[in-house]
Write a structure and sequence with these properties.
four-stranded antiparallel beta sheet, about 20% strand, disordered C terminus
Length: about 325
């Protein structure tokens, strides 16, 4: 039902023979039984299934938010396996490659709309922050240790008769720990001030304003999530997911908590982004919502039953006559 023609070359995202079993105490609850899916560049795929079919679990595996079973297949992005054991690559995949829209929004209540919208761009892009923390801790430890030795000797913190090599070392270690902690605290304080500045100016704020503005939220930047309607919260959630300019948008029941009119508005916004080239994978239980996609993947009892053109699900939607009879 959409205008763009997807690239039918190498899939941008693949899930191959995915299996997932949850453990409730000693009880094993299998959810996915070898489900496979592929998504092409520029395509909008809807995963259609009833409650409990495993569709949200499948989406979480594709997003790298959960791990498949050990005997499972794998998830591949542009042909390369998504390795969840590699923290750096995994975080980059979750934060930069994909944008994820949760059914229940998951906005941070203490942040306003603009601050929620820029979260993805406030996350460090590499390991620089961790390296800096390590350097500051090491520097604080060295300074603390030197001061400890100085205090045990020339400064006379230990009485002359109590000065032993062991006691001097213990004092130096204690001072090193204190110095390391103080240096980390100072670094984190400076980092917090820097982040606060970035939240009001700079590239992250500009990107958030542009993205949220596309969803008509210009007058809501200073509002907290509790002050928004359900539709506005979902707009913020989608804007946050698109804030890092991801290659893919994964959406878990994006209209599940909305009334029909608001849900249609959200789908129209997604359709506009899709027409601009965004690749979308969306989970839904509603054939009407699935009809917005280019292709529908049906999931039942943890297995993919079939792939079909989205237009075919239109026949499943109740007609006006049927609705009238049901209401009557």
């Amino acid at each position: 039902m959409n205008d763009p023609t997807p690239d039918t070359g190498t899939p941008i995202l693949e899930g191959n023979d995915l299996r997932k079993t949850y453990h409730l105490g000693r009880v094993k609850v299998p959810v996915l039984h070898g489900a496979s899916i592929s998504v092409n560049q520029g395509e909008w795929v809807a995963i259609l299934g009833s409650s409990g079919s495993g569709k949200s679990t499948l989406l979480h595996l594709l997003a790298g938010l959960d791990r498949p079973d050990q005997d499972s297949g794998d998830v591949r992005y542009r042909g390369e396996k998504v390795e969840l054991q590699d923290g750096g690559k995994t975080n980059h995949y979750r934060n930069r490659t994909i944008g994820f829209v949760f059914q229940f929004y998951h906005l941070l209540p203490e942040l306003d709309v603009l601050e929620n919208g820029m979260l993805a761009n406030l996350v460090p892009r590499g390991r620089s922050a961790g390296v800096l923390v390590f350097i500051m801790a090491l520097l604080g430890g060295v300074i603390g240790a030197l001061m400890g030795f100085q205090a045990a000797g020339d400064w006379g913190l230990l009485p002359l008769e109590e000065r032993t090599e062991i006691r001097s070392v213990v004092l130096a270690v204690a001072c090193a720990i204190i110095g390391s902690g103080m240096m980390i605290a100072i670094f984190q304080g400076v980092q917090a001030l820097w982040l606060k500045t970035r939240m009001r100016s700079g590239d992250a704020a500009d990107v958030a304003r542009s993205t949220l503005g596309d969803f008509g939220l210009e007058k809501r930047y200073q509002h907290r999530p509790r002050e928004l309607s359900g539709g506005e919260r979902q707009r913020v959630a989608i804007g946050r997911a698109l804030g890092s300019n991801p290659d893919l948008l994964l959406a878990d029941e994006p209209t599940g908590n909305l009334d029909e009119r608001t849900g249609t508005e959200i789908l129209d916004l997604l359709q506009e982004k899709h027409r601009a080239g965004l690749t979308i994978v969306m989970v839904t239980h509603d054939p009407k919502v699935a009809s917005y996609a280019d292709r529908v993947v049906r999931l039942r009892n943890g297995r993919v039953l079939q792939n079909e053109d989205a237009d075919s699900v239109v026949d499943e939607m109740p007609t006006t006559d049927v609705l009238d009879e049901t209401i009557g």
